[in-house]
From TrEMBL:
Source organism phylogeny: Eukaryota, Fungi, Dikarya, Basidiomycota, Agaricomycotina
Keywords, comma-separated and alphabetical: Disulfide bond, Signal
Similarity comment: Belongs to the peptidase A1 family.
Keyword Nucleus on entry: no
Record organism: Agrocybe chaxingu
Stated name of the protein: Peptidase A1 domain-containing protein
GO biological process: proteolysis
Amino acid sequence: MVTGIPFACIFHIALLHLWSNSGVAALPHGLRSTEGTSRRTDVGYDIPIMTKKARSTGSRNRRRGNASGSVGLGNNVDLLYTVPIEVGNNVFAVNLDTGSSDLWVVSDTCRRGACSGARTARYPQSSVPSGGANVNMTYGDSTTGTFASGAVGLDTATIAGVSMNQQAFGVVNDTSNFLVQFEAAGIFGLSFPAASRVQQAVVTRNSGPIDTTDKFIESTYTSGPLLPRIAMSGALELPMFTVQFQRNTIDVGGEGLLTLGKLPDGVDNSSLTWVPVRPYSVAEGGMDPPSWAPNEVYLVRQSLKS
Ligand SMILES: *[C@@H]1O[C@H](CO)[C@@H](O)[C@H](O)[C@H]1NC(C)=O
Ligand SMILES: *[C@@H]1O[C@H](CO)[C@@H](O)[C@H](O)[C@H]1NC(C)=O
Ligand SMILES: *[C@@H]1O[C@H](CO)[C@@H](O)[C@H](O)[C@H]1NC(C)=O
Ligand SMILES: *[C@@H]1O[C@H](CO)[C@@H](O)[C@H](O)[C@H]1NC(C)=O
């Protein structure tokens, strides 16, 4: 992955991830259905993942070329895994990243750094509400990592025909991430909302730091990442997504599959091994329970620096 968090290994199903809906009242927002390249099935949605080989262009990528090589995908080749997301009136191919939690796309004002000469779709800076938050999203470690910075946009975002109004996302006008040179317009982070820089930036700007679990969970509904907001709105049969890659299809440049709200067709739950996420009590550094569910035990939420 160009974003700096390589998959440790690629199995039939690379990732399976659930959100806890417990204690969170369904807070329906205006959802509208649109046509897309995705397919609605009885219980959820299938979204094809496009894979694309991105030849390394410089030292920044070489290290990750090694990481790709270690899973048998060839040296000095990075793979981009993109899905189409509609933001406002444009469709953007965004790179899936399981190690981060934010959606960002490049702005039409991004010209320097990795944006120089990039021929990807761009989001109009003129559509960004003025006076909003700014965000700087960093990836990887301090010596080899990349950043993507800009203003926070608010627009309708649609994946698989499921739309969320007023979705907060990064409108990046400066980045060192070379994925934009390979016709990917940005990153779609699939990790937990606790790691969202955009949510943190918006909430901090509007009402100060996220200092309680109540504020964190409530603000995830209004200002959190796209997939958790869709799950919290009750639009999915099951609050889950899966990402499926098959090595043989990757080798021939084929497709993978992102599913929302269900397991992939043909995958039997009983054939999977479920590994529980370790909860941390408050004494162990975990988050306080929310006021409406005092017995809940949560993960660690690190306080992120803006
Ligand atoms: C990448 O591979 C080259 C050649 O095998 C090796 O010399 C180098 O140390 C590797 N770099 C990393 C960061 O693993
Ligand atoms: C974003 O973070 C990177 C890496 O720390 C830094 O080089 C860059 O100047 C920052 N950009 C902004 C706008 O703060
Ligand atoms: C990029 O966006 C930030 C945040 O809105 C703004 O402060 C900065 O001036 C912009 N930089 C350029 C080069 O457009
Ligand atoms: C799959 O099985 C696990 C373990 O039995 C269960 O907790 C989970 O709810 C099931 N998930 C689906 C999507 O059926």
